[in-house]
Amino acid sequence: MERNALDALADFSAGCFFASLLVSGAILYMARGRSRLHAVAAAMFAWLVLMNVVLFALIYVRNVLGTHFEAVTNLYQATCIPMCVCLLYGLARPGFLTLRALSAHIVPALVPLALYALFPNHTLYVVCMSLLACYGLAGMLWAGDALRRYNRGIRQWCSYTEGVDVSWVFYVLASFALLYVVWLLASYHGLRWVNALYNFCCSAIFVFVAWCLRTHEVVMCADGVEDDA
Fold it and tell me: 110 to each of 68, 94, 129, 138, how far by Cα in Å?
């Protein structure tokens, strides 16, 4: 009975996650003055929607991965880590999100998934997941330092500060940090209640991020540096 309840909770949480991605995408679509940062966030949500469709097909239609299901899906989900890092750093460094910078972060994250698909091996899986986890931690620390310097720079060098509030970016950073911890638990334990917790956290955090980004716009500082509010 308890197992059936956990399965039902996990299924419900997966549905909530999928619905939240659609809501997040709609929020970004309706945002005024959409920028490249909006495009990156929208691409991340679209990638997650595709990921959920694939997972639903594997779970409820036919599991063609067999015993490799958990490893492949975890590596698949980990491909969103560089998107989150780029999104955070893009908030702190307007103009950073060039196609070259995005490719330099996102393409390498696809390599572990491709390697495991070609050479399914548990040791390879552990190494790849560990590297991606280290990258995610380093990326958040890197982005956190950039956000701190960015916020300080606005107050020191920008002539237009009235009505400009960038404190919300630290809430976005904290949200991604929480998501990172829950993702680690879900990836390395795989328990149904942990997966449900991960899905519920994703649902709330991604809607929150999209809601924060809805008013994101470029503001020019006195020294000509682009700024985001």
Answer: 17, 25, 12, 18
